[in-house]
Write a structure and sequence with these properties.
Largest sheet: 6 strands, mixed
Region (Disordered): 243-271
Low-confidence stretches: 249-271
Strand order of the largest sheet: 6-7-8-3-9-10
Protein name: Phosphonate transport system ATP-binding protein
Pfam family, one: ABC_tran
Order of helices and strands: EEEHEEHEHHHHEHEHEEHHH
Membrane topology: Peripheral membrane protein
Distance between the termini: 25 Å
Mean pLDDT: 89
Radius of gyration: 18 Å
Structural class: alpha/beta
Strand content: 15-25%
GO molecular function: ABC-type phosphonate transporter activity; ATP binding; ATP hydrolysis activity
Number of domains: 2
Bound molecules: adenosine-5'-triphosphate
Length: 271
Amino acid sequence: MLEISNLIKRYGHDEPVLKGLDLSVEDNSVVAIVGASGAGKSTMLRCINRLVEPTSGSIKLNGSEIVTLRHRDLRRARRKIGMIFQGFNLIDRLTVMENVLSGRLGYVSLFQAITRRYPAADIERAFKLMERVGIAQYANKRADELSGGERQRVGVVRALMQEPEVLLADEPTASLDPRTSEQIMVLLQSLASELSLPVLINIHNVAQARAYTDRIVGLRHGTMIFDGTPADFDKQALDAIYGGIESPEDETATPLGGPESADREARHDAS
Ligand SMILES: Nc1ncnc2c1ncn2[C@@H]1O[C@H](COP(=O)(O)OP(=O)(O)OP(=O)(O)O)[C@@H](O)[C@H]1O
């Protein structure tokens, strides 16, 4: 379980960009974080893995405080936090397997990492996970030979190799076509329940947030102004979050309450 309490982040002497956020996410739960550009979504996610230093507040992962950790303890905590990126963040010239195994870097010695002598158990786990997400056949291909959707699956498996206790995804579908995006969202949803993980997804595409997550959190100017189920996420919530700003809902042309048939189809095809 992830528990964020009174999280404040101020860059320099500017106004805080996170103004006292409180958010608890249970294992198995997939939460979409939505909000206009600049609302603080990425900052929030980056505070959780301490890529950004919180100004104050508490972030607990399964009861352990993250905000006060330093040095070795911070490195240990970070390996429990899997991160999935919009641009995949793969090393192109390495194979899929090598990219996947880099998820173990927090666990193996420097010597093992440099000489790529990963334990047999890691390689076995890598194959199992690659099979699970449908990329095992690409294990020896260079990462840059894969399509966007396949690359994002590599990113997902790399994160899972960390044996994470939480998954954070920062716009994981923004570089993908709509169909592939749906498949990645379905995958994240399935993995949350299979592995009993809390999953937080920053996402601009409101229709996908509504279709593929259990809960939507809406930020506006660093304050949480909506926290509810997709069914509760109505036009009023949308207007409050994007108020006057053109919302990504318009891009999808999906009526509120309506993406279920596409959802069913994608679930059927993607898992
Ligand atoms: N390193 C930084 N230094 C100073 N200000 C920053 C820094 N990173 C982000 N900000 C500011 O913090 C605010 C929130 O940014 P953040 O990237 O968290 O928003 P976001 O909701 O993720 O936006 P987007 O959807 O465009 O990615 C913005 O006003 C941004 O300019």
